[in-house]
Amino acid sequence: MSTTTDPQWTPDAIDLIRDVPATGTYTITDEVQITDREHQLVLNMGPQHPSTHGVLRVILRLDGEVILDCDPVIGYLHRGVEKLGESHRYAQVVPWTDRTDYVAAPMNNLGCVMAFEKLAGLESPERAQYWRVIFSELSRIASHLVWLGTHALDIGALSMSLYCFRERELILDIFEAYCGARLTTNIMEIGGFSRPIPEFLPQQIRDFTKIFPQRQQEYAELLTANPIWIARTKDIGVISPQAAVDYCLTGACLRGSGVNYDIRKAMPYLVYDRLDFEVPLGTHGDVYDRYLVRMEEMRQAVRIIEQCLDAVENMDTPLMAYESAYVIPPHKGTMTTAEDMQRHFIWVIKGFSPPVGEAYVAVEHPKGENGYYVVSDGTSIPYRFRIRSPDFVNLGVLPYVAQGAMLADMVALIGTIDIVLGSVDR
Amino acid sequence: MNDQPIWLTFLVAFIIMNVLLIGMAYMTYFERKVLAAMQDRMGPTRTGPAGLLQPIADGIKLLSKEDLIPRAADKWVFFFAPLVVFVSAIVTAAVIPFGQTAHLFGRDVNLYATDLNVGALFVMAVSGIGVYGIILGAWASANRFSLLGGLRAAAQVVSYELILGLSLAGIFLLAGSLSLREIVLEQQQNLSIGPLEIKNWYIFSQPLAFVIFLIAAVAETNRAPFDLPEAETELISGFHTEYSAFRFSFYFLGEYIAMIVISLFASTLFLGGPSGPGSESHWWLGIIYLFFKTIIFLFFYVWLRATLPRFRYDQLMGIAWKVLFPLVLLNLVVTAAIRLASDGKLF
To answer: Who among B41, B148, B232 is closest to A407 (CB)?
Structure first.
């Protein structure tokens, strides 16, 4: 590189502005008039920025406060979870998925264990399926609460983040009561649940489902009809249904545009086909519609949890598919009988080897379609382990929606896509 | 009003300044406690009883932090800009009357630093200078986020300065004076609406101006939901991103003192300042009344911050020019017409 480069342009910035003429004007879209280069400002937002939800970096080209162009840069939180999945035994891979989207850890586990179960031709017992739905819907609420709190905080509603984290605490308490961990729970296991459900847990969850709708109503009263909130979110970041499909969006980003695709309805897994719930759809595809969709999803999640709790109330069937060789043997006899101890020990250190084949399982994650693709070569370690993380794909729409928006809308747009960088970078 | 030796005026000014500085420190405590109560938390509790020493601990912390100046910064401007904000905020307190005169130690002491005949205009003018501190500091930081913050501050403060000034024009018409002391005296008279006899506080005769003044004052002091120059979630604190340690604390002091002064100003203009039952005979009662009236406005500031999302830059300017500006002109024209009609000069 010669020394003639203007020192204030970073290499990325030069890349971004390469096709802008030095003088004169031309148009990208009808609304955005591009002025000549000397009136533009290249702004590097992130990776250390309070509103990029972690370590997302966005390079913006601005004309005044209007965004002409935006270039998201990812990879600052890349830990190679997929590669780690290809060097650990099946049961050891599951905890790694906690660390991808860490605000909805049980949902990540769910997709992963269901892919492994499909590979091994195994099905978890009915009671375990209900409990899987309960935990995954709880984590959907937890994830949406984090989204709501940070999204509102980005737009300036300071208190909302504290209210949302207060309710999320109740959900984390439930996770803690079951498995001892709060964030990276590793709650789903291959074959079901190896630990019994504590007797007080259904009541604790019921208490939560009683408190939560009232609290959510309070949030809605603070935001839904608030003129400033409406001014900041309505008609901002509009995604047409066609564009949403073209960009492969899933989750609330897709349904906010009015496209009816929810894996729980389209390809029901677990016991979702027996449960009564609705899939909210937006009409206009703007930030406000996605906000309404996610708020309604939380209400529906409460409904689902209540139905599941009613179903498991008097169920006394096993929680784990112990008859299968692919499932960790019962812990019960390991301290008293040598055979049980040996069987348990061998399973833990050797793992299990599913038949040669491949499996793809997608679950409706709070952020969209979370898919796990696993290839087995017959050994106890996956040959290929690949995660389709919803927010990585959804993030691709950011340059499309940011064009022509104001700088202050940028934080609303990042918030509405609902990214967790652990999941984007994996 | 009495003539008093210059040293006594200096003493009064010194006391006012120190009260303001301590008031500013405890304003941060008040804000944190109120915000905490609204957000279901405790607020500061560890430093002293109920966290009462927290402002002092914060001050010590700010003093002992490393003072960083970016290499690309314009050093002299970077050094002066926070002082402009701080000085312009504190100087405005000079014309605020805390009462008329007090009889202390055998002397008559004026309870204000000075009685300018254009006092209200002085407050507006000097607080308008504060925006230079923001723009210059933003420019001198050589940071693009700061630059954007500075530009926002310039546009915002210039627009809202105008609205703030025009919202008070009605009061000046009614009071017939720009001196804050005389405006207070004017409000001590009685106003009779039918059988009801109330004090002639301008909040009753100028309610629209009061509401517009409140909105413009929030924008003028760069507080939520109009805190666009700072906008910590988009511009990472905007104009003071690059400021640290005691230079930062001057911005901080400036912002909070501006809040206190504009609240004092609002109580003086609309709520009768230190007037209240018994305040004519007991000067200290007036100071207590003024204190509580100011607290109402400060609470309002904190309440807004806890509740409302932030406006966008263009929406803010839209409100200023499309909503508030026509309203404030309407208020001025109607007030002028009423004033002329009451003198019998309208037709």
So the answer is: B148
Mutate to test the interface with A, among B312, B315, B319 (most CBs of A within 10 A): B312
- Asked if residue A264 and residue A181 are part of one domain, the reply reads yes
Question: ipTM score here?
Answer: 0.81
Number of domains in chain B: 1
Quote the percentage of chain B above a pLDDT of 90. Answer: 0
Q: Do A51 and B234 touch (CB under 8 A)?
A: yes
In terms of phi and psi (left: phi > 0; alpha: psi -120 to 50; beta: otherwise), the region of A63 is beta
Rounded Cα distance between A377 and A383, Å, is 6
Q: Is residue B5 part of a domain?
A: no
Do A242 and A138 sit in the same domain of this protein?
yes
Q: What residue numbers bound the domain in which A171 lies?
A: 81-388
Say yes or no: A46 and A159 in one domain.
no
DSSP secondary structure letter of residue A196: P
Tell which of B222, B308, B316 to mutate to test the A interface (max A CBs under 10 Å). Answer: B308
Q: Using an 8 Å CB-CB cutoff, list residues of chain A that contact chain B.
A: 41, 43-44, 49-51, 65, 152-159, 162-163, 166, 222-223, 226, 228-229, 231-232, 406-411
Mean predicted confidence (pLDDT) in A250-269: 88
Q: Six-digit token pair at A266?
A: 């389209």
What would the pLDDT profile of A160-211 be if each residue is shown by its tens digit? 888 999 889 999 999 999 988 888 888 888 888 888 888 889 999 999 999 9
Mean local confidence (pLDDT), B274-283:
71
Q: Closest residue of A to B229, CA-based?
A: A408
Asked whether residue A106 falls in the same domain as residue A192, the answer is yes
Chain A: closest CA distance from residue B149 (Å): 11
> Has residue B30 been placed in a domain?
no
Q: Min CA distance, A407 vs chain B (Å)?
A: 8
Beta carbons of B233 and A411 less than 8 Å apart = yes
Res. B28 pLDDT band, cuts 50 70 90: confident
- pLDDT range class, residue B194, cuts 50, 70, 90: low
**For residue range A333-387, what is the model confidence (pLDDT) as tens digits?**
778 888 888 888 888 888 888 889 899 999 999 998 999 999 988 888 899 899 9
Q: Are A380 and A351 in contact (CB under 8 A)?
A: yes
- Specify if A211 maps to a domain: yes
A122, A165: one domain: yes
Q: How many domains does chain A contain in total?
A: 2
Q: Are A67 and A405 in contact (CB under 8 A)?
A: yes
Give the structural domain span for B177: 65-96+117-342
On the CB side of A267, CA atoms within 13 Å amount to 8
Residue A393 lies in a domain: no
The tens digit of pLDDT for each residue in A88-140 reads: 888 888 888 888 888 888 988 899 999 998 888 888 888 899 999 999 999 99
CATH of the domain at A369: 1.10.645.10
User: How far is the CA of A83 from the CAs of A55, A110, A186, B18, in angstroms?
Assistant: 21, 19, 19, 63
Q: What is the CA radius of gyration of chain B?
A: 21
How far is B80 from chain A, CA to nearest CA, in Å? 25
* Same domain, residue pair A109 and A55: no
Answer whether A228 sits within 8 Å of B233, measured CB to CB. Answer: no
> SS3 for A276?
coil
SS3 A375: strand
What is the rounded end-to-end Cα distance, in angstroms, of chain B? Answer: 38
